[in-house]
Amino acid sequence: MAVTAGMDSFEQKLAQLPDASYILFKADWCPDCVRSTDAVKSAVAAAGAQLLLVDVAAQPPAWKTPAHPLRTDARFQLGGIPTLVYWKGGKAAAKLGADLEKAPTTAAAAEVAAAFVKANQ
């Protein structure tokens, strides 16, 4: 099951997230995110796990500032989007960023996401 959060509700939704879940940090204006979101949803659903979809910013300038809360948050230290995090034991146990971002097609994103989920269950 997928749950959506914006920055205003992120901490609340994170606190409610079951252990051994996934978090996808994304933005609707980001072409790499658009290409990979459905692939990530499918991979996580196939594993029977929970997915939290987090919209990091409504507009690119808000995300691109080095002071963005998710860039500076020690739990995540995001460098780019999309980023898929395996959340276990109240921390980011694994993170998939650059490979998901660089996936040239939806099919490639699906392969990368499925491999990450399989390796982190």
Automatic annotation (TrEMBL):
GO terms for molecular function: protein-disulfide reductase [NAD(P)H] activity. Residues 28-90 form the Thioredoxin domain. It holds the Pfam family TXD17-like_Trx. One of its GO terms (cellular component) is cytosol. It comes from the Eukaryota. Belongs to the thioredoxin family. This is Thioredoxin domain-containing protein.
